[in-house]
Amino acid sequence: MKVRIECHDALTEDQRRQVQQLRQAVRSHDGVDPFNDAARLGMRGERPAVHWFAVEEELLGYAQTDPEHDSAVLCVHPQHRREGIGTRLVQSIRAQGDHLSWWAFGDQDGARGFGDRIGFNPQRQLLIMERPLTEPPRSSSPASGVEVRPATEAGDLDAVVRVNALAFADHPEQGSMTRSDLDGPRAQEWFNPADLLLAVQGDEVVGFHWTKLIQETDQTVGEVYVIAVLPAASGQGIGRVLLEAGLLHLHQRGAQRARLYVEAEASRTVAMYSAAGFEVVWTDTQYS
Ligand SMILES: CC(C)(COP(=O)(O)OP(=O)(O)OC[C@H]1O[C@@H](n2cnc3c(N)ncnc32)[C@H](O)[C@@H]1OP(=O)(O)O)[C@@H](O)C(=O)NCCC(=O)NCCS
User: Fold this and answer.
1) 115 C-alpha to ligand 1 centroid (Å)
2) Confidence of residue 3 (pLDDT cuts 50, 70, 90)
3) Residue 218 and residue 216: Cα distance in Å, rounded?
4) Residues 285, 134: Cα–Cα separation, whole Å
5) How far is Cα 256 from Cα 143, in angstroms, rounded to an integer?
């Protein structure tokens, strides 16, 4: 078989259609989308990306590298696996200098076996946790002096950016959230300050819970999108109160299920979610 590897800085309409077809074939076969949000945007040309094609007559394998975050995704057509295509793509990318992290979604045998063989080491695990929201969830009152309210006052969004930066100082992506992520043109379409709940102590915003409603074909899902408490205010139960208030808010807005994404190594946070009835339904792994 004469598979050739091509590298493209941008995709033509036709190439984008081929990538989309391959992605669809992988998704139907594996039951898992091989792309995350970043890769979807990269494919549409909405964020920087380099595209690697393994082509015979048609596209048999595809990898996308993200030069900003040094991360990559990779997939091979289900009918052309174990033919060395994944290996060729990784080798071509490595030949350009590889200090990338590779994402595998759903903890599948293929990715694990391939990762072992090619010398990838699991580095980070991202969990998806869910719980039902059909019944009103428990909600406890905040400690005295702490008020929970929506982010509808002037200055609230600046305070959220500040709390976020301090709470996620060690987090590679989340800590860099800016004002334009909250009220820039792209956020305007779906961001609603009423879904962003703040914990206020005295005059100071000490934590927030940003919730989101997602309409799926068969249900409305309420997402615990970001929850953060200032390190200086931690240990007072503010995270739990914010979580409960957000779940109640999502239930009242019609969500039937709650979902969240969390780093597996954030064990205290995972414990808080487990105690609130969440269970792990999915695991994504980042290899280096
Ligand atoms: C993971 C994936 C990219 C591998 O692509 P591929 O072209 O089939 O991989 P290769 O043929 O180059 O495999 C190289 C070696 O990896 C190992 N391997 C690959 N798939 C495996 C599997 N399902 N189970 C166990 N080992 C596997 C084997 O050692 C294989 O060598 P061998 O076939 O001589 O035994 C492909 O299965 C895929 O697209 N999966 C879905 C997307 C995904 O999980 N991407 C994340 C990659 S980190």
Assistant:
1) 8
2) very high
3) 6
4) 30
5) 28
**What pairs with residue 280 in β-bridges?**
129
Ligand 1 atom with least separation from CA of 74: 45
Q: Hey, CA dihedral for 260, 265, 266, 270, is it positive or negative?
A: positive
Domain boundaries, the chain: 4-120, 129-287
Q: Which residues pair with 222 in a beta bridge?
A: 213, 258
Ligand 1 pocket by C-beta < 6 Å: which residues?
Answer: 26, 30, 34, 74-76, 81-87, 102, 104, 108-111, 113-115, 117, 287
Per-residue model confidence as pLDDT tens digits over 103-126: 999 878 899 999 999 999 999 899
Any idea how long the chain is? 288
Q: How confident is the model at residue 188 (pLDDT cuts 50, 70, 90)?
A: low
Identify the CA nearest to 115 among candidates 137, 87, 141. Answer: 87
CA atoms of 168 and 246, how far apart (whole Å): 20
| Amino acid found at 129 | M
Which atom of ligand 1 approaches the CA of 83 most closely? 11
* Tokens at 174, concatenated: 């989340």
Which atom of ligand 1 approaches the CA of 88 most closely? 12
Fold entry, domain 129-287: Aminopeptidase (3.40.630)
In the block, residue with structure tokens 């669809």: 24
Amino acid at 265: E
- Amino acid identity of residue 288, one-letter, is S
Architecture (CATH level 2) of domain 4-120: 3-Layer(aba) Sandwich (3.40)
